[in-house]
Amino acid sequence: MEGSGERIFGTFFRRPVGGGTYAEYVTVPATNALAPLPQDLDPAVAAALPTAGMTALQLVESLGTAQSVLIVGASGGVGSFAVQIARAAGKRVIPIGRGDSLAEADALIDLVSADRSSFEANARYAPLAFNTNYVSADPAQNFGLKGSRELLVRLASMVQSGDLEVPIGRRVPLREATDVFAGHGPGKTVIIM
Ligand SMILES: NC(=O)c1ccc[n+]([C@@H]2O[C@H](COP(=O)([O-])OP(=O)(O)OC[C@H]3O[C@@H](n4cnc5c(N)ncnc54)[C@H](OP(=O)(O)O)[C@@H]3O)[C@@H](O)[C@H]2O)c1
Known about the structure:
It comes from Lentzea kristufekii. The chain has helices spanning 43-48, 50-61, 77-88, 116-123, 149-160, and strands at residues 8-11, 33-36, 68-72, 92-96, 107-110, 128-131, 168-173, 188-192.
């Protein structure tokens, strides 16, 4: 943080003041989810954590005491974190990729369905179900991330303790940032300033 020298990481739910965030310096409202960057945490790893990591952590915590969980879209950004966090919490995880059949479980995290009927078909397999695309008629099933400093601190600590692995696929210098939008392979893409 300019002035204090504190290194921080996080995500901007409240828009930066002025332009976007491809800048060396950016001014953001302090009400964003921001946390100190631990000394021994790779800044690229910290950059890859916030939105997907907080979403996964908060989703898994929404499952309460459910013992088993279906995760549809398990190989994606949120899914790959949710699989690890749910397993670390002692849950039996059933990862669902393209073409996989669903089986009954205590809970469902649907990261893929883009319409109500698709989500409803998946939700038949579990008494407790959430989607991330706001497609359910039941607002309680529509998960919306509420990011916080506390969630970021916990995620950083899970990475430091080895409970959470952050799959970084590419580290791209800022001058090549436009290439990122041409698509990318598995894992997170991080732009290095
Ligand atoms: N509500 C919230 O607060 C919130 C927060 C974060 C994210 N989101 C939303 O959550 C969704 C997931 O985010 P993400 O970052 O994880 O996306 P992502 O990285 O694109 O991952 C989506 C994953 O789903 C897989 N997939 C696609 N179609 C599938 C199918 N029919 N069956 C099984 N798996 C399938 C994809 O596999 P392929 O690689 O084979 O395509 C990919 O691995 C997005 O729609 C995002 O906008 C919402």
